[in-house]
Design a protein that fits this description.
The complex is a heterodimer of chains A (about 525) and B (about 525). Chain A is built from 24 helices and six strands. Chain A is globular, with a radius of gyration of 25 Å. Chain A has a two-stranded antiparallel sheet with strand order 1-2. Chain A has a two-stranded antiparallel sheet with strand order 3-4. A two-stranded antiparallel ribbon of chain A has the order 5-6. Chain A is mainly alpha-helical. In chain A, about 50% of the residues are buried. Chain A has a domain at about 365-515. Chain B has about 525 residues and is of the alpha/beta class. Chain B folds into two domains: about 5-420, no CATH class; about 450-525, Immunoglobulin-like (Sandwich), CATH 2.60.40. In chain B, strand 18 (about 510-515) and strand 19 form a beta hairpin. The relative contact order of chain B is 0.15. The chains are: A mainly alpha (about 525), B alpha/beta (about 525).
């Protein structure tokens, strides 16, 4: 036993025990119902009956293309409300009563923003944008509640639209957008980063958390990057300057450090006052710095981002045997100049993704879990944003700048009971009428055995034992003989309580929390 | 579910888990002798860890008020000398939000006066990592891997319990070993054998929600990732259910005798006091105070003693002072030791946003009764002239010295266990007083039982000690930061006087640790060649 293994440094759970799984070659067969369920469990917040029907029989390439959509050509989303265009004063400069009013307004509007997003997750069909947007929101983190108070929800909304628009774009351009994003500038001290007294906060996270991962830059590089990024401001308040319009970023030349910078061994030349303009600094310094980062640290960026996407969409605890797949995906990412679409498309249409060993191994995020309940059951949600917060996924307000740690941290002695409690609330809201209609959507609903099998296939990621199937069957029958099932299922008052009992037992099952 | 069923069901789960256990932590052979419960389970000692997340600004916590360089580095943030609280007539000054009249019982200053507080200066590790997350992982895991890509996946507390409880988690203790107040379960309580603690916000809710949460399903044989994740979720659900009653019962039985308020760190400490008072047999509690990442406006412009950072410090000082008073009144103060941790200190010079950026060495507080801790200051005021290449403070104490103290002196771990848990031999700081049940075989007091002559050592030096009876003796050398240098002697010595030569050493200061059975004596000396 080597010392590292002895100290338990390697990983939390032992890696998968199986041989190397399938490669990234295309999975090129018509998708079965199980295949489609697997794909929808990962790329949406839960399969709906209608989407399963719609995609079964298509090839993976087509199904994934339909799910990914075409950012930029999509019609605008419904607005969360008129508040998104209404600015308030800076609460730090006003009396305590006004400050309280402004912050209360923001808190209420932030809740609307979260509920708006959850509703998009719940109702989306094709394309499926929200899971990827959720990934990016956890990657390019911004917290509503941060050290200095609150980030106005108006700019968090705009940031969320930007994440959705850029979700499959070029990652280098994505990083540039994020770097000068209004909410981000405020969140990581960018607005306070001025010549002579740089603030290193964003510069560090740009590399450590957003692109290369830790270990690929020196403290000197952090300092120089901070100098490059001096001078940018965010228009967040009605009483603040807004040369580019409210809720937009602008540039203040006198706060920009015009000296030469040495970033990752490459010089960004000094400029004079004449060239110290928004456009030139953006293109020749900010963009240039990001270009240098991608030139000098291409492999690190590819490794970091491929690893992160893989852990989010395929499995959170990849084994050493998955290294070849990760390397092949890195290669796709780099060959395509850091375009995200070919990477995501290759990953999700690969034999590797559809390998049986990769099914049902992912722990559902609270969003998967809560929104999935509603999508799968075809019901609406109430209090979902608060429920997600109790399960420790407060949307657009992660615990810290590194986002949600994910994987097994989603399940704790604190959050697991919250999951059960919320599910029971949702289950209780299912009317008898709805239960009857729901059951009858399954092709084999008339026979108890096929009905149970189809329900288990729909709700649970892998086939279950005969004992468990028999247990669930006994709950549905509740003492009645099997041959009476078709009349029970046609009777709303009989099937309602039975379906609710089955669901209450199922949501406690460990594999209900896997996808 | 009845507790017995719960324990049996949990056992069923982990027999399979143990069978396929990776080579994480060596499990002790199950001989009848070792099957006795480890000493930790017999003891009622409790540890509280207060995590100050974000990187506490050590230089505005313990104020270098006699150092002009401090005032030069921090023109807008330095705390004026006349505002700081001075400890006796030393050069140690505390921030006015930590000590003084405005605080409950005089805050940490009051505890220092009563002999219930220790201050450890300049705590850190080699190659300081300025990332919050990596550095937090280094602190919580107790492993400073120089390779930033090594994933740190176990906490030092998690490794400790996994190591000393060979049957864990096949046999779960009656009460949770560790409790974290709020949040997602910390790395501190994770181990390769599973989580050794629970996260808890409200005992009543924990009970109501956890009751009946146990799944109906049996564990799966751990043949693949699916089965492992399945069993993980199942074991968490079982613990939530099984511990929900124990926690609520303790909470309902327990009481507090001071007013902790309902918010922030004091309220968290109040809940811990109530659980201890109610008889919960939890060994380690973790509470959390965030907001220390003070890059921007860490203090108010018109009064540097007010603002974000000072108000965090006053939460800390009030919380700890309230807790100690409560513990004294309820009679459990002698059973509890608390420490603070923070992932790093901050840069000595301020940034332009009236804040400070990430730095290196930081300060730690230890609180406990006079029978448990040596109330003093450990180390000297930071050297603001000799900084590292990045302009940050250089550490005086390895951050694992307090961990070694706790493991050896508070939790009765063996020297071998302690070295295995911390990855190498680390000298305990001796803040915590060891309660031994046997009398020392060494003749003499703690101060004179072991003598090094001459001191300073020039060319050759001798270690002299005297034993009441023949005993196994281990003499180890450490540097002043507490890191292992080499072994001087390891073997049996006869009754009476012994004299052992020191090996040739480079010039510098050293720490000699003499271990006879469970007794430890430390001696500092200098080599001047």
């Amino acid at each position: 036993m080597n010392r590292r293994a002895f100290l338990g440094l390697e990983r939390h759970a032992p890696p998968r025990l199986t041989e190397p799984l399938a490669s990234i070659e295309p999975y090129d067969v018509p998708l079965s119902r199980d295949d489609v369920l697997h794909l929808l469990r990962r790329l949406t917040c839960g399969p709906s009956v209608a989407l399963v029907e719609q995609l079964t029989g298509k090839r993976a390439e087509e199904a994934v293309a339909l799910l990914l959509g075409e950012p930029g050509t999509e019609p605008p989303l419904p607005s969360p409300g008129p508040w998104v265009d209404q600015a308030q004063e800076d609460p730090r400069g006003v009396d305590i009563v006004t400050r309280g009013q402004i912050e209360a307004t923001w808190q209420a509007n932030f809740k609307r923003l979260q509920e708006w997003w959850i509703e998009l997750m719940r109702t989306e069909t094709l394309p499926a944008r929200e899971k990827l947007t959720l990934f990016w929101s956890g990657h390019f983190t911004t917290e509503f509640t941060y050290d200095l108070g609150y980030i106005p929800p108006q700019v968090l909304y705009r940031q969320n639209l930007m994440l959705r628009r850029m979700r499959l774009g070029n990652f280098r351009m994505f990083l540039e957008e994020v770097t000068l994003d209004c909410a981000m500038l405020e969140y990581l001290g960018g607005t306070l980063n001025v010549a002579g007294t740089p603030n290193e906060n964003y510069a560090r996270e740009m590399m450590e958390l957003y692109s290369t991962g830790i270990g690929w830059y020196t403290e000197g590089d952090v300092k120089e990057a901070a100098r490059v990024l001096t001078g940018w401001k965010a228009s967040l308040y009605s009483d603040a300057p807004a040369p580019n319009g409210i809720f937009n970023t602008w540039f203040k030349p006198s706060d920009h450090d015009i000296g030469a910078k040495q970033f990752l061994g490459v010089t960004i030349p000094a400029r004079d006052q004449d060239t110290n303009t928004e456009y030139l600094v953006r293109t020749q310094e900010v963009r240039r710095m990001i270009e240098i980062l991608f030139e000098q640290r291409a492999e690190a960026i590819a490794r970091f981002m491929v690893g992160k996407l893989y852990r989010f969409f395929v499995y959170s605890n990849p084994a050493a045997t998955d290294a070849t797949v990760l390397a092949a995906l890195m290669d796709v990412f780099m060959r395509n100049d850091f375009e995200l679409r070919p990477l995501v498309q290759t990953m999700l249409t690969s034999k590797h993704f559809f390998d049986p060993a990769n099914r049902g191994v992912q722990i559902k995020t609270p969003a998967d879990y809560v929104v999935g309940l509603a999508r799968q059951l075809g019901v609406t949600l109430s209090g979902a944003a608060d429920a997600l917060a109790r399960m420790e996924q407060d949307l657009i307000d992660p615990p810290d700048v590194s986002g949600w740690p994910g994987y097994r941290t989603w399940i704790s002695t604190k959050t697991f009971p919250q999951r059960i409690a919320y599910a029971n609330q949702v289950i209780a809201s299912i009317s008898d009428q709805h239960a009857q209609q729901f059951i009858q959507k399954f092709p084999g609903w008339r026979t108890i055995d096929t009905c149970v099998t189809e329900l288990c296939q729909y709700f649970l990621p892998r086939p279950i034992s005969a004992d468990r199937t028999a247990y669930y069957k006994s709950i549905l029958l509740a003492g009645a003989p099997s041959y009476e099932w078709s009349s029970i299922a046609a009777d709303a008052q009989a099937v309602g309580p039975r379906l609710r009992s089955l669901l209450r037992a199922m949501v406690k099952a460990p594999d209900f929390h896997l996808c | 579910m009845k507790r017995r069923d719960f324990l049996r069901a949990a056992a069923a789960l982990t027999t399979t888990a143990a069978a396929t256990q990776i080579a994480g932590v060596p499990v002790r052979a199950s001989s009848p002798v070792l099957a006795l419960p480890p000493r930790i389970m017999e003891s009622d000692n409790v540890l509280i860890i207060i995590q100050l997340f974000g990187g506490n600004d050590a230089l505005n916590t313990v104020i270098p008020a006699e150092n002009d360089e401090y005032y030069r580095l921090r023109p807008t943030l330095a705390i004026p000398k006349n505002k700081a609280w001075r400890w006796l007539s030393t050069d140690l000054y505390l921030h006015p939000s930590l000590a003084g009249d405005g605080l409950y019982g005089g805050g940490l200053g009051g505890l220092m006066d009563q002999g219930r507080l220790a201050i450890v200066q300049d705590v850190g590790y080699d190659n300081p990592n300025l990332s919050h997350f990596r550095s937090t992982d280094i602190w919580l895991s107790g492993i400073n891997s120089s390779d930033p890509f090594v994933r740190l996946s176990e906490g030092w507390i998690g490794r400790f319990f996994a190591r000393v409880l060979p049957d864990f988690p096949a046999v779960l203790p009656e009460h949770p070993l560790c409790v974290q107040i709020g949040g997602t379960l910390s790395l501190l309580f994770q181990s390769a054998k599973g989580d050794v603690g629970i996260a808890l916000t409200d005992p009543q809710k924990f009970f109501e929600l956890g009751r009946g949460a146990s799944p109906d399903e049996e564990p799966l044989p751990e043949l693949d990732a699916f089965a492992r994740e399945f069993n993980y979720i199942r074991s968490v659900a079982m613990q939530a259910d099984g511990y929900s009653r124990a926690v609520l019962d303790a909470y309902n039985r327990g009481r507090t005798t001071v007013d902790y308020g309902s918010r922030g760190l004091p309220a968290q400490l109040g809940m811990i006091a109530r659980l201890i008072s109610g008889g919960l047999k939890t060994k380690v509690y973790l509470c959390y105070l965030g907001g220390f990442d003070t890059h921007v406006q860490q203090q108010e412009a018109d009064d540097v003693t007010k603002g974000v950072h000072p108000s965090l410090l006053s939460q800390l000082a009030n919380g700890v002072a309230l807790f100690m008073q409560d513990a004294l009144q309820q009679g459990f103060a002698h059973r509890v030791v608390g420490i603070t941790i923070s992932e790093f200190g901050r840069r000595p010079y301020e940034n332009g946003s009236r804040g400070t950026d990430h730095g290196a060495a930081g300060v730690q507080f230890v609180f406990g009764d006079g029978t448990s801790i040596r109330s003093s200051r450990f180390g000297t005021m930071p050297d603001l002239q000799n900084l590292d290449a990045n302009g940050d403070l250089i550490y005086q104490h390895d951050y694992r010295r307090l961990y070694a103290d706790i493991l050896l002196n508070w939790f009765d771990a063996t020297a071998e266990d302690t070295a295995a848990i911390l990855g190498e031999r680390i000298a305990p700081l001796n803040v915590i007083k060891r309660r031994t049940t046997t009398s020392s075989p060494l003749v003499g007091t703690e101060e004179n039982a072991v003598v090094i002559a001459p001191n300073p050592v020039s060319s050759t030096g001798q270690v002299m000690l005297s034993l009441r009876q023949m005993a196994a003796v281990v003499l180890e050398l450490y540097n002043t930061r507490g890191q292992f240098v080499g072994e001087v002697f390891h073997g049996l010595l006869p009754e009476g006087n012994s004299q052992l030569p020191l090996p040739p050493l480079q010039s510098g200061s050293y720490l000699l640790q003499c271990r006879v059975g469970e007794h430890l004596v430390h001696r500092s000396f200098t080599v001047a060649r």
